[in-house]
Amino acid sequence: MNSSAHYYRTAEIIYFTTNSISTLVCLVAAYMVFRLRLYRKVVYRLSLYQVLASLLLAVMSILATIISINYTKDPPTYGSVCTAIGWFIVYAQWAKLLFTAWVTFHLFCLAVLLKNLQRFEVMYVVTSLLVPAVVAIAPALTNTYSPTGNCYISAQNDSDHVALIENLVLWDGPALLVLLVAFVAMVVMVIQLSCRARCRLEYKRISADDTFWKALKQILPLAAFPILFFIFIIPVLVFDIYVAVVPNPNPSLELTVLVCIPMWSLTSGATLLAHISVARCRARVQMRALHLQLHDLYVKFQDAK
């Protein structure tokens, strides 16, 4: 086996393994939400949307790896299947991106305006499901979903610039724009929350604390989703732009990207599981404290007799 073949086989193994782990984590997280009926709360519903989009992305990425490995056995059949899988991959990426954008907007309104825009949840879901469906059609029409590129938008040869332009216009450009706006929003949120927390501590504005802490309880668990997504999407976007300038990048950079993309799904599932675990532990502590209080009242009542 030559070095090139060995590299691609290693990349396929890494991509398949990390997506498999991500799929398992997302499945467990989604199961826990439904098992514990946590979907009744808006925080868990917004988290669940992220996890379901991530789950679809991970599953489609696994299928794309299988197609890429077996493509030479039956190119016509696998080529058609690859186009369908590529559509779902772009759809899932855009759904993940839009859900992240809406979560950031929701957090901004809570932190800065102290307004809960839960009534717009239907709009969050509808736009995040319909817009990706339209965007994902364009590469299918131009036949740029490449079996040799894990069914993603990839150039068939060095002279093929259609795939490069589509990738920049349909993904890199919008993702960078969302990333920039969301980063500014997160900075404003952090500043605003810090100022409000300091003011409440200094002036002891207890009467206003209820609204502030209710908002904070939603902000803290949801904030992890955009932050972790931004951390792992930046290397991918930088790599795409780098490839547009340098056609043959260092293989180690591509391996880094193949690890970062599944991390979008893995971190979504892991964040939701962590939030569920913390919430259940807090509930147990509160129940234990309540039990001790009732026990103390009972003892005092018995002593009073």
Describe this structure in words.
It is elongated and about 85 Å long. The mean pLDDT is 82. The chain has 305 residues and is mainly alpha-helical. It is built from eight helices and two strands, in the order αααααββααα. The relative contact order is 0.13. The termini are far apart. A two-stranded antiparallel ribbon has the order 1-2. 84% of the residues lie in helices and 1% in strands. A hairpin with a 5-residue loop joins β1 and β2.
The DSSP helix count reads 8
What Rg do the Cα atoms give? 23 Å
Trace the largest sheet across and list its strands: 1-2
How far do the termini sit from each other?
87 Å
Mean pLDDT: 82
Q: Write down the secondary-structure element order.
A: HHHHHEEHHH
The description of the largest β-sheet is: 2 strands, antiparallel
The oligomeric status of these chains comes to single chain
Name the beta content range.
under 5%
Helix and strand composition category: mainly alpha
* Poorly predicted spans: none
Secondary structure: number of strands: 2
Q: Helix amount, in percent?
A: over 70%
* Envelope shape: elongated
